[in-house]
Amino acid sequence: MKIYHPKRSRPKITVIGGGTGLPVILNSLKNKDAEVTAIVTVADDGGSSGELRKMFNTVPPGDIRNVLVALSDIPEKQKDIFQYRFKSEDKTMNGHSLGNLIILATSEMQGSIYQAIQLLAKMMYVDGHVYPASEEPLILHARYKDGTFGEGESQIGHPDKTIDYVSVSTTDPDQKTAKAGKKVVSSILDADMVVLGPGSLYTSILPSLMIPEVGQAIIDTSAQVLYISNIMTQMGETEGFSDANHVEVLCRHLNHDFIDTVLVNNAEVPKEHVAKMANDEYLFQVDHDFKKLEAKVPKIISNDFLNITEKGVYHNGDKVVEEILRAVSFNHRTLKL
């Protein structure tokens, strides 16, 4: 059992992930009394990010762009410009986000993706810290339970295959082992709480954890590690998964029961909404298995965290952050007593 120790009156919360889930939490954390750090996955190889990654052998900028916007205090009009996606008959530009191109250009000017992010964070009045999990693009590898293998973040999900294990490597044939980016490890070790998710289990959360230095830091940190369980299962990744299955996969990948708290949505997604989404990326609502969860995790927080929109089912960022801050405050108060 970890012994938590208060390090500061303003708690430091480090959030690890990618995709659409990470900005939701960061946006809600932004105006709270906490020091926020975002560690962003760099294994994306699809869409605009994937194309730019291949053209320039660069870290995919899409998730970084969304995180900068989520933590930014610039006016909404300026955010809209940064997020603008070209609609052009010219295939070279069509589909690319202006922010992705700005990140790429700044990276070339500054000589590194790390320096580029720090400069853009200042320009965008970002309240917090943003670090890429690695400063080089990573390749996500999957081993399936039938003994076959797959490669690529956008390619490993198959409806007819079950993922058994994922790992990451660099694109450099002479240096395959991925290295953590600057300040990533220290941000984990010095945190009061490390938050994982919400996000795709195999393609948003695990890619960062499978960087050896990052995985070890997660195990070694004295911070409370909190996992936000997914609301819906995902096609090609987590069909038939319960919340306990998600936790089991995370722990198995690090060969350690490292999760201290799990946030679980206990509100039911309306059946008509599930039916509407069934043929898309998502399948069904994640089942609950509290008995197995209790065997793996010391603390379970269940509540209505639903935010249903026309685009899909998401976590209610404000409600999730309320529980995160309550958990951090509780640990601090208990130890001061």
From TrEMBL:
<keyword id="KW-0963">Cytoplasm</keyword>
<dbReference type="InterPro" id="IPR002882">
    <property type="entry name" value="CofD"/>
</dbReference>
<dbReference type="GO" id="GO:0043743">
    <property type="term" value="F:LPPG:FO 2-phospho-L-lactate transferase activity"/>
</dbReference>
<dbReference type="InterPro" id="IPR010119">
    <property type="entry name" value="Gluconeogen_factor"/>
</dbReference>
<dbReference type="GO" id="GO:0008360">
    <property type="term" value="P:regulation of cell shape"/>
</dbReference>
<dbReference type="InterPro" id="IPR038136">
    <property type="entry name" value="CofD-like_dom_sf"/>
</dbReference>
<comment type="similarity">
    <text>Belongs to the gluconeogenesis factor family.</text>
</comment>
<dbReference type="Pfam" id="PF01933">
    <property type="entry name" value="CofD"/>
</dbReference>
<dbReference type="GO" id="GO:0005737">
    <property type="term" value="C:cytoplasm"/>
</dbReference>
<protein>
    <recommendedName>
        <fullName>Putative gluconeogenesis factor</fullName>
    </recommendedName>
</protein>
<comment type="function">
    <text>Required for morphogenesis under gluconeogenic growth conditions.</text>
</comment>
